[in-house]
Amino acid sequence: VWTPIPFLTWLFPFIGHMGIARTDGVIRDFAGPYYVSEDNMGFGRPTRYLQLDLSRIPTTPNSNNVHGVWDKAVEQASGEYKKRMHNLCCDNCHSHVAMALNTMNYNRKHSYNMITLCFWMFFRGKFVSFIGFILSWLPFLILLTVFFGFTFFFKATK
């Protein structure tokens, strides 16, 4: 799941705050230094989501319960990130989600990272509603309109 970060998403709409839900729908997100929230995302309710397919989690004879594998990976990543300092540029909410996906070997991959997840959500994520779309894009579009409005105005007055 994803939600905009005020000011940052307004300037760069592909950057936002990310979390991952357990199979019961409870969202976990690395919201700050040594803090992983539970069902209370750091920047508000989700506006976008990616519905992942549980059948893409490989199982073994000892572990054929995909719900358990998913939830265990989310909790392991959350436990690890409760011990970490938050860093906006290199160890952040996207890294937390990447660790969970890598731990569960989602889609038989161990290469998820903050960059791949950022663009995966940007290009493949769905909006939770029309309001989610507005909350995600309106500030950026307003800033863009103001920028081009001023540019046009000052060129026209020369």
From TrEMBL:
<protein>
    <recommendedName>
        <fullName>Transmembrane protein 222</fullName>
    </recommendedName>
</protein>
<keyword id="KW-0472">Membrane</keyword>
<keyword id="KW-0732">Signal</keyword>
<dbReference type="Pfam" id="PF05608">
    <property type="entry name" value="RTE1"/>
</dbReference>
<feature type="transmembrane region" description="Helical">
    <location>
        <begin position="137"/>
        <end position="154"/>
    </location>
</feature>
<keyword id="KW-0812">Transmembrane</keyword>
<dbReference type="InterPro" id="IPR008496">
    <property type="entry name" value="TMEM222/RTE1"/>
</dbReference>
<keyword id="KW-1133">Transmembrane helix</keyword>
<feature type="signal peptide">
    <location>
        <begin position="1"/>
        <end position="23"/>
    </location>
</feature>
